[in-house]
C-alpha cells in the first residue's frame, strides 16, 4: 500500500468524524477499523445539541436526518430525598438526540467510507509505530493476518479510552477505575419525562436512562467496582430510588431479557495529546464518567478543532498540533472536572455530599437561570472553567442556605463543616484550571500581539507589562 497523508486508528464516532474533517481539507485518509461487534458494546448513545451541530458541520446531515433517533430536550433529575424531579433544559429551540450505539456508529462508518479521499480498511489494526518525528510516522498494521508498513504525514489515535496507539507512542497516562456500568433495554413508556434523559440520584445506585428508539429505552445502572449482574439481582433494594414502573421493567429485563451489557467506568487522561506527528482525539485523549453523556459531543469537537488547526497551519505539522492542543484544552478540562464533581455529588453518601445534593436541589428549584447554566456546562455548550467555578460556588452557597431554612431538619447545620471539606478539593482544582485558562487567554489576546509588535520595533514588552509585575 502506498503512503498517505493521514492514518486514523479506530473507526468509531471519533475516527469517522476526523476522517470526514481531514478529507474535507483534501488530504488522503486511511481509516483503520478493527471491526468489533458494536451491537455488544455499551457506549455513547446520547448526543447533546453541540454534537449534533458538529456532525452536520462535518457533512453528516443526511445521516442524522435518516436516523430513527429520539429527541432529547434536556435532563430530568430525580432526587431521592426529598423526592423531587427537576428539569434541566437545553437552550431555547435546541434539542439533542439519542439512538442505539451500533446504529449510530455503523451509519457514520458507511457514510465516511464513501467520501472522496477516504479509504476504509476493515478488520485491521495498527500494530506498531516504528518511527515518529516531525517529518511523519512510519507504522505497521495487520489485516487478515498480513502485516503492512506505510508512511503517513500524520497519525491520529481515535481508538478509545484504552488506546493501544497511545501506548505505542509512549504517551504517559493517568488511569483510575471508578465503577462498573450495567445496561439493559426496557419499554420507554415507563420513563416519566418523554423527550428527556433521566438521572436518578441520591439512592444506593446512580442510574441514567433515555429512549434509544420508538418504544425502547436504555437504562444504565452504576455499580460499585467488582459487582456483577448477580450483585444487582441479589439486592433488589438497590433500585428502590426508581419509579415503580421503571423498576419493574429493569427486573424483567434482568430476568427475561438478553444478558446485560457491561462496561467499565474509568478516568483516562493522557499527559499530552500530541507527540511529533501523532495526535490523540476523543476518548484516547481524555475519558471520564459517562453521567454527563458528553463523550460523543467532545470527540466531534476534537475533530473540528483538528480540522481548523490543519487549515490554519498547513506547513510544519507541529504548529497545527500545538494549535489543536491549545484550543481543545479548556473545554476538555471543564468536561472532565464537571463529570468528577457531579459524580461525587450524585453517587456518594457521606454527609458533605448529601449536603451538596441539597444545594443542587435548592439551586435548581429557586433559579431557572442556574438550571440553564448547569445544563450548558453539562452539554459542553459552555466550556469555560471560570463559569463552572462560579456555578459550583453558588451550589455550595445554596447548600448553606438550605441548612438555615425553616424547613431544614434539626441539626442540619452540622453538615456545614463536612460540606466545606468535601467541596474544597474540586473547588481548588477548578479555580486552578480557571486561572490557567485566563492566563492562556491573556497570552493569546495581549502578550502575543505585543511581542509581535516588539519584534517589529513598535512596542516594548517591558513597558507594556510593567504594571503587572
Walk me through this protein's architecture:
The relative contact order is 0.12. The chain has helices spanning 13-23, 49-57, 61-66, 101-113, 164-168, 229-233, 244-256, 295-312, 317-347, 351-366, 368-378, 385-404, 416-455, 461-464, and strands at 4-9, 29-32, 46-47, 70-72, 74-79, 84-89, 96-98, 118-121, 124-133, 136-143, 146-157, 173-187, 197-201, 207-213, 216-223, 261-270, 274-275, 278-280, 286-287. Mean pLDDT is 89; it is low at 459-469. By secondary structure, the protein is an alpha+beta fold. Strands 1, 2, 8, 9, 10, 11, 17 and 18 form an eight-stranded mixed beta sheet that branches. An eight-stranded mixed beta sheet has the order 6-5-13-14-15-12-16-19, with helices on both faces. Strands 3-7-4 form a three-stranded antiparallel beta sheet. The chain has 14 helices and 19 strands.
SSE diagram, text form:
Blueprint: E1 4-9, H1 13-23, E2 29-32, E3 46-47, H2 49-57, H3 61-66, E4 70-72, E5 74-79, E6 84-89, E7 96-98, H4 101-113, E8 118-121, E9 124-133, E10 136-143, E11 146-157, H5 164-168, E12 173-187, E13 197-201, E14 207-213, E15 216-223, H6 229-233, H7 244-256, E16 261-270, E17 274-275, E18 278-280, E19 286-287, H8 295-312, H9 317-347, H10 351-366, H11 368-378, H12 385-404, H13 416-455, H14 461-464
Parallel strand pairs: 1-2, 1-11, 2-8, 5-13, 11-18
Antiparallel strand pairs: 3-7, 4-7, 5-6, 9-10, 10-11, 12-15, 12-16, 13-14, 14-15, 16-19, 17-18
Amino acid at each position: 500500500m502506498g503512503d498517505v497523508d493521514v492514518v486514523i486508528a479506530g473507526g468509531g464516532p471519533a475516527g469517522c468524524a476526523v476522517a470526514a474533517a481531514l478529507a474535507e481539507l483534501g488530504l488522503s485518509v486511511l481509516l483503520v477499523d478493527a471491526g468489533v461487534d458494536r451491537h455488544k458494546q455499551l457506549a455513547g448513545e446520547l448526543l447533546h445539541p453541540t454534537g449534533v451541530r458538529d456532525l452536520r458541520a462535518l457533512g453528516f446531515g443526511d445521516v442524522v436526518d435518516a436516523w430513527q433517533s429520539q429527541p432529547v430536550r434536556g435532563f430530568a433529575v430525580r432526587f431521592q430525598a426529598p423526592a423531587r424531579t427537576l428539569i434541566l433544559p437545553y437552550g431555547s429551540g435546541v434539542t439533542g438526540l439519542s439512538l442505539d450505539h451500533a446504529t449510530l456508529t455503523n451509519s457514520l462508518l458507511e457514510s465516511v467510507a464513501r467520501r472522496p479521499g477516504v479509504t476504509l480498511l476493515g478488520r485491521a489494526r495498527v500494530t506498531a509505530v516504528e518511527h515518529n518525528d516531525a517529518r511523519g510516522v512510519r507504522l505497521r498494521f495487520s489485516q487478515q493476518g498480513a502485516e503492512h508498513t506505510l508512511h503517513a504525514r500524520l497519525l491520529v489515535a481515535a481508538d478509545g479510552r484504552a488506546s493501544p496507539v497511545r501506548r505505542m507512542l509512549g504517551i504517559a497516562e493517568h488511569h483510575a477505575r471508578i465503577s462498573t456500568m450495567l445496561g439493559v433495554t426496557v419499554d420507554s413508556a415507563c420513563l416519566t419525562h418523554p423527550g428527556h434523559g433521566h438521572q436518578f440520584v441520591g439512592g444506593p445506585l446512580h442510574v441514567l436512562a433515555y429512549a434509544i428508539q420508538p418504544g425502547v429505552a436504555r437504562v444504565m445502572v452504576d455499580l460499585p467496582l467488582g459487582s456483577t449482574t448477580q450483585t444487582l439481582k441479589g439486592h433488589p433494594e438497590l433500585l428502590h430510588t426508581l419509579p415503580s414502573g421503571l423498576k419493574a421493567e429493569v427486573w424483567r429485563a434482568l430476568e427475561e431479557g438478553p444478558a446485560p451489557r457491561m462496561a467499565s467506568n474509568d478516568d483516562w487522561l493522557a499527559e499530552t495529546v500530541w507527540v511529533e506527528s501523532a495526535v490523540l482525539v476523543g476518548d484516547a485523549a481524555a475519558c471520564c464518567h459517562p453521567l454527563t453523556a458528553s463523550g460523543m459531543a467532545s470527540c466531534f469537537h476534537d475533530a473540528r478543532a483538528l480540522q481548523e488547526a490543519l487549515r490554519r497551519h498547513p506547513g510544519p505539522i507541529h504548529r497545527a498540533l500545538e494549535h489543536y492542543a491549545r484550543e481543545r484544552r479548556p473545554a476538555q478540562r471543564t468536561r472532565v472536572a464537571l463529570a468528577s464533581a457531579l459524580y461525587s455529588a450524585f453517587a456518594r453518601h457521606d454527609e458533605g455530599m448529601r449536603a451538596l445534593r441539597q444545594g443542587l436541589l435548592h439551586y435548581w428549584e429557586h433559579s431557572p437561570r442556574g438550571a440553564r447554566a448547569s445544563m450548558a456546562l453539562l452539554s459542553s455548550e459552555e466550556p469555560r472553567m471560570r463559569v463552572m467555578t462560579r456555578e459550583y460556588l453558588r451550589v455550595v452557597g445554596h447548600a448553606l442556605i438550605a441548612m438555615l431554612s425553616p424547613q431544614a431538619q434539626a441539626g442540619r447545620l452540622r453538615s456545614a463543616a463536612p460540606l466545606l471539606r468535601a467541596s474544597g478539593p474540586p473547588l481548588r482544582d477548578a479555580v486552578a484550571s480557571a486561572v490557567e485558562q485566563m492566563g492562556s487567554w491573556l497570552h493569546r489576546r495581549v502578550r502575543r500581539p505585543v511581542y509581535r509588535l516588539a519584534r517589529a520595533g513598535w512596542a516594548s514588552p517591558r513597558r507594556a507589562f510593567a504594571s503587572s509585575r
